[in-house]
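New here. Your pick:
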Amino acid sequence: MWQFADLNWLSGGGATRRFQTAAAFIALVLCVGAVPATPDDAQSVPIKGYVLDSACAFTKDLAKPISKQCATACAKAGSPMVILADDGAIYWPIAAETPASGQNAKLLPFAGDQVVVRGKVYQRAGSRAIVIEKIEGQSPQK
């Protein structure tokens, strides 16, 4: 029958084995500490940028929308709206609750406009999403 004493490699086996065991333990502790925050830990932050349709954000590599009319037409045709941040990052607006709902209705009044959005930001594999808590239009920069 197996006994705890069979684990004598932890206490015996020389300094090398004890070093390897200690190194493995430290690595485990560091890996557990490196786990990203859970979605419940997401912080509410402000994001400054433009509201535009996702297709133009990706296919046209825009720094800002072509026009309010263009962004509105694409959104009304079903293209999901996104926030194109001043730093070039794209944030997908998402619902906080499930079943999830589209966010275009919330963003449509700001289509093509510069805004400041405040909300909880989530990241996964290079994608960014935001649960919008507040959105305010900004005066265009000259």
User: Anything to note?
Assistant: The first helix runs from residue 14 to 33. The CA atoms of residues 53 and 87 lie 17 Å apart. Residues 4-33 form one domain. The helical segments are 14-33, 54-59, 68-76, 104-107.
